[in-house]
Amino acid sequence: MASKNKRTKRALVLGAAGGLGVHVVAALSEAGWEVVAADRRRLAETGRESLVEGAGASWHVLDDEPDSLAELMKGCTALVNAAATVSLSEPYQALMLDNVELPRQLYLLAADAGVEQMIQISCASIYDGERGVRTEESPADPYNDYERTKVEAEDLLRRLRAQHEEGPALTILRPGLLYGPGCTEMSAGLVTLVAMLRDLASYLPGLSGGPRTNWCHAGDAASAVAVALEHADARDTTLNVGDDTTLSFGEVLTSIAEGYGIDLGPSVPMPTVTFWAMISPLIDNEFAFGRMRGLLRLLWKRVQREHGLSSPLRPRLDRNALFYVREDAVVVSEKLRQMGWAPVWTDFRQGIVPTIRWYQQAGWVPRFDTEALQERRDGRVKSQYSFTERGLGEITGSRRATSLTLDMEVTLGQWPAPMMPMEGCVEGSITIPGLVREAPLEGTVELRWEPLPTMRYEFGFNDELGQAHRMSLVREMRLPRPLCSWSTCRGTLIDRYGEDAGRVQLCDEPAGKPNAWLGVRA
To answer: What is the average pLDDT across 36-60?
Structure first.
């Protein structure tokens, strides 16, 4: 009779069609495992097929009968449970069947089938929020019902393991905040948030500060599964999984924007603890939160409609989610590293760029991309329409008044047609005595026709010390003097701290003449 060590390496992966599950299937297949992939959904329904191309797995659609799971476990040496209902807003009763009862059933079935090891995917957010650095020995202190179900599942599985000496060894993996191609939960909502902000404003500021945390790429969490199945020290223990780089929440949002290829203005600081205290009455108001959630859903539907998307991503706004932007949370993965594991994606800023590219190729998020901008600059868009503007004016405000000279080339995607809103890009130079002389500028322009024609310019530039500034200008047609009003721009100069540095008033050269009418000189 063959010994257990001689058995075929066969692993059953539950939740295999999910955002983490597909990476686990790919990692185990690459590591030489025979993979039995099971999920309630068909892989083709998830849009994640590209992530398991070439993986030698057999795929199965589950029903609710335990017998089907028992049949799939026959001959398996390992069981990986990546199945869960992930939600910060659902009540306990809506979560416990998948997050608590299913792991219990799986362990008992695995014990009957002779499975040697079970890996339960938990989460690193269950730790005490008052402790910034989190090792496996840090106390658990669940903050919401989702985390409570994860802690309850861990405790239940440990009791079952103690009761079944011959049952599967238990390994609990606690990944940090997950992201990566195919992921749709938790952090993926931030990707939609940046997209909605960019859709509302053509030029965004950066963001700095906020609580610091490290992240976990789904591919690295999957490779941790493969290591845990091969290493004896991983049995009957708990292992954290996280990358090497601790980032502030502001840096995370800025990295997502840069991953889209969005040009950012000067950074503004994250809200302070005082801010959270001020808005706490709103946080505790379910009616107000419901209204905000509804608004986000409408904005995201608008983004999908305008960009022709069909996306499983959803913006998330939950009271419980605000906890994750208030406290530091650094996940230490030293135990796993001692087993030979190391993350491929050591920095969220490194991993988010290909993640967003995957989302864009899958049609899950829009393109505000520099590629489209570069096409206009290079003249590859045949119907594009360009014209130049030169303006003279002044900046007034808290500092002394100073003059301003602005030269811009405006490029629209096509010849302007009445009632057709459009976007374009602006390039040129700006001179502000005492601040900068003929500094290159770059940004965007929007043209809207209702109720009267309006053009909005947003662009950034660096002063002579290399410090970033941005300017927002609006050209509006107003009655009863439409041409003269159109020849004037008004706006604001924002300094490197994100503060108002002065009010801008600019007239087409020569001053007082209605020169600029989409390139037609009066």
So the answer is: 93
Give the pLDDT mean for 79-84: 96
Nearest to 331 by CA among 225, 174, 148: 174
**Total residue length of the chain:** 522
Write the pLDDT tens digit of every residue in 476-506: 888 887 777 888 899 998 887 667 888 999 8
pLDDT of residue 294: 77
Alpha-helical regions (H) of 114-144:
none
Question: Worst-scoring range by mean pLDDT, 63-72, 219-228, 450-459?
Answer: 63-72
Provide the terminal-to-terminal Cα distance of the chain, rounded to the nearest Å. Answer: 96
Question: Can you list the positions of beta strands (E) in 332-435?
Answer: 385-396, 402-412, 422-432
Q: How many CA atoms lie within 13 A of 40 on its CB side?
A: 10
The mean predicted confidence, pLDDT, of the chain is 83
- Block residue for tokens 């840090």: 138
Q: Are 413 and 445 in contact (CB under 8 A)?
A: no
Q: Give the three-state DSSP class for 69.
A: helix
Helix crossing, 286-307 with 188-200: angle to 10°? 70
Residue 339's nearest CA partner among 230, 199, 209 is 230
b/e burial code for range 414-436 (CB count within 10 A of at least 16 → b): eebeeeeebbbbbbbbbebeebb
Question: Phi and psi at residue 490, in whole multiples of 5°?
Answer: -130, 150
pLDDT in tens, 382-436: 456 778 888 899 998 756 678 899 998 888 766 665 566 777 888 899 999 988 9
Cis previous bond, 451, omega within 30: yes
Which amino acid is present at 368? F
Return d(Cα 501, Cα 470) in angstroms, integer: 10
Q: Pick from 205, 255, 253: which is nearest to 494 by CA?
A: 205
Q: What is the distance of C-alpha 51 from the center of its chain?
A: 18
